[in-house]
Amino acid sequence: MINFDKFSLENGLCIIVHQDKSTPIVAFNVLYDVGSKDEKPDKTGFAHLFEHLMFGGSINIPKYDQPLQKVGGENNAFTSSDITNYYLTLPKQNLETAFWLESDRMLNLAFNKKSLDVQKKVVIEEFKQVFLNQPYGDAWLLLRPLAFKVHPYQWTTIGKEISHISDATMKDVKVFYNTYYNPENAIVVIGGDVDLNQIKKLSQKWFGSIPKGNGQQRNITREPVQISAREETVRRDVPADAIYKAFHMCSRRNKNYHATDLLSDILSNGDSSRLFQQLVKKQKLFTDISAFLTGEIEEGLFVITGKILKGVDIKIAEKSLNKELSKLINHQLKESELQKVKNKVEAALVFSEVMILNKVINLAYMELLGDADLINQEVKNYAKVTTQQIKDVASTIFDKNNCSTLYYLSN
Amino acid sequence: MDKSINRKKQPTVLAIQSVDLQGPAIIKLDNGIPVYFLKNGTQDLLKIEVVFEAGLANQPKRLISSFTNKMLSEGTSSYTAYEIAEKLDYFGAYLDTIVDKDYASITLYCLNKHLDNLFPVFEEIIKAPVFPQNEFQILLNKAKQDFIINQQKVKYRASLNFPRLIFGEGHPYGQMAVLSDFKKITHLDLKNYYHTRYHAKYSKIFVSGKLPQDLDKNLNKYLGSLFFDENQSDFKPDFSLQNKKFENLHIPINKAVQSAIWIGKRLFNKLHPDFIGMQFLNAILGGYFGSRLMTSIREDKGYTYGIRSSLASLRMDGYIYISTEVSTEYADLTITEIHKEIDKLRTDLIPTQEIDLVKNFFLGQLIRGLDGPFAIHDKLKAVVLYDLDIKYYQHLIDRIMKISPEELRILANKYLSKESLIELVVGK
Fold first, then answer.
1. Could you say which of A208, A362, A397, B64 has the lowest number of CB atoms within 10 Å?
2. ipTM associated with this complex
3. Which residues in chain B touch residue A278, judged by CB atoms under 8 angstroms apart?
4. For residues A262 and A385, is the Cβ–Cβ distance under 8 A?
5. Maximum C-alpha span of chain B
6. CB contact under 8 A, A350 and B258
């Protein structure tokens, strides 16, 4: 059970406070409700580039990192298709520095030309390091546009191509900031050995006077239902063939989400899971295989990917994989197998509450989904899933017309 | 706008002078294995880590150490690999096996309520593995394929080659696995290695979390009678070997988009009197986001997504290394800049302001490393494995508080001369 208090400032900023007396540090998380799904198709990678610029100095504070390091703090951030999330941890006695830093960059940025030029280069290096200079590194750049034809989930957060990053202008930056970096588009979560009244005072002091913003409405076209199987084959200089199968699935807030998540666990969470036991250990077709959800808020993907053992025909491996998926449609799962994955999820949830930083990030995300208290209902939501529901979800998802397959072959 | 606050001025900065670190309770099992108990945390879960002196340096043949460790849970005298997996998964447990240059460890993470169901299987994993041929073959196939894939990553290639460059080919810390090694090991090698190194005399146990009452009794019951045979013949690594070849290396990869650059040298471990000073100097150079290398090479020039300098402490030795990946066209420029930054440390005094900042960052990092029972577990382990105790961290703080620019410059001259640094470039 994670306790918390929640309040809002007049400008719409939502603030959540979680008290944990056992830790010497305070974690401070600011979630902005903007991700790569909010980008235009010809300006992709922008939300993530922007995340880098948030460290380039704000209106009153020329350098973000230095004052934080001076009080023994550290920070980082990540961007996904849905959100941009900034977090820092620091020794509790210096909590106010976090308010000072985060409120100033919510108030306004310095819009420094040099910072933009340099961070464009840094992000391009990141693009190369993560996506181009790695074996299988471009698989997601291929798979997403295969699965999504309309929805902006078709591009990765790094962007479609390097030129979108190098073409970004200061004007783009300003428009983006003014649209999304506002109190009413943000959720602040503070966790640690803190006092609620003190947090209220500090919140009012530092965030209270920031103008609220102009009420941005999101208008994203839904992906039409996929009606036929899609596939793409590429050849690359990699040592082993790999297969990627992406199926459309329900949204994060859908009633079938927890069953869908458990379905992926049945397939591949742990060494006793079905795909590992059948395809890696018994049939020796794959060297590794995993099934997972891409984790978006709107309708995302259920992905199965594996590397084929050298000498095995990828089509034969795929056939056996499909057979495993059919089993879930045609046979009812045993209660004990479902209980196993529920136990695993429960343990994972409790383990995710060990570190204060994880707790504040999760609270912010749950609040974005609708209510921070969802964090305390997760175990229950998973426990409610039935074997019949798993079967139904499997039938809906594992339809060949709902699948996009990428054959990533060795040259 | 509220004029009553001054947004240009940082709120009062309170310095950190000490850390509140509870020492562990220590007991010895009947077979002599010391157990370090850290009872803390808010969640009903725990971690049991059994550490053996069975790392890469101790192996008589390459790859044995890591395969032995991985194979522990692949079948025991009473459970098949599948039964072990099924049991661990059913009770929501997570088993972690880690091998580094000195140690091999096996860790069980679980909720307290399931521990009684898991102990018997955990006991067998540690005390009665049988190393089945079939499971070994599957693991070998996967590891071999991963190895081939990883060879395409410039960073991996660099990390693989660098220890060999600085310690030398025959040194226990200079070993480098090659593809043909995968053909040379059998499941019998693993069995032999297990019998020589997975012994009470080579073991320590660390437990942390909201520990249940009877844990000490249960640890003794399940792990207190671990096989202990003094007569086993044992491979003795020779740590005194000196590196005869001392040269830079360039591994060309034609299609590389980025090059991995590693620069560094052999140094010493945390028992050396200059270690803390070098740790501090390392932080200034490349040990945090605002470090000189990050500021110059990423934040000023944009050559890289990241660059860092690290100090590695090993049981018998240690080394310092700077590592980065940069666009191939920036590789030479980056190397020049790295040397420029090191050169500055040797000639100029570091400004007091920068030293104060890094002092605070350093101490903050220490405190941030105490978030939750498992983080404290790691901090404890990092000293106990050097026969130090938890007081080391207060000593570290006291030492850091006193560090001066003059001392740092002396250290830079003593240990970071350009001629003594080895360069490795993987890429173009």
1. A208
2. 0.89
3. none
4. yes
5. 79
6. no
